[in-house]
Amino acid sequence: MDTLNSSGCRCGPARKAHWQPLFVATAMKNFANASFPPEVISVMEEALDAAVASLPEPVHSTHVQCIAEAILRAADKGERDPQILQRLALLELQIVRR
Question: Number of structural domains, the chain?
Answer without folding.
Answer: 1
